[in-house]
Structures
1.
Amino acid sequence: LEIVTNRIDRLRDQLKKPRPGKQKELDQQELALLERINAAFEQGKSGADLGLKPDEVKAIRSFQLLTLKRE
């Protein structure tokens, strides 16, 4: 949860700064995905229950979230 929260904070800070359009769009997509995951974690849900698309899983794979694995 802390890793996701820290990344959300960093993305919000980055979105305030001028960046190329493509990078800003990718940051916004990642922020929306992480906010969705964070909300699920706060409700006590598993990341595996979110029904993430393959491209969304690929985007957050670097976080190595154990809750994305099925039991």
2.
Amino acid sequence: ASGVSVEWNWQRVEDGLPPDRERVLVSYEDGVCAATYNSDWQCDPVGSYAGDGCIFDVTHWMPLPSTEGLE
């Protein structure tokens, strides 16, 4: 969509974790996916597959970007 921008606000895992069960984007050894954290990282099954859903070596996370302004 024209005129829509996304602000990337990656947080280092060492600096803190998202609230439990909040859906966020994560960067890990195999790429980027939407995931939740609750004592371990669970990758969302939509659009990606990470075995049993657990992903490892997450280095960064960020809130999901807003879809405001998208058509």
3.
Amino acid sequence: RRRRRAEPAPGGAVSAGIASRYRSDNGAEARLAEKVKTGGQGSWGSLPMPPQPDLQEKDVRTLVRWVLTGQ
């Protein structure tokens, strides 16, 4: 019996791809933090990223900084 390879999870880019795209962009942290708060669609495919307006600003920044590390 053959094992199937795991398919990538739907719903957007992995943090390594995000980090790579924004590596040399000095304004990326602020823009991505705003996207987390307001949501978005189209940057990484057709699935929307729902807004997270209830997250505290410090938590949004922590999340975005982590994603930008590419880990």
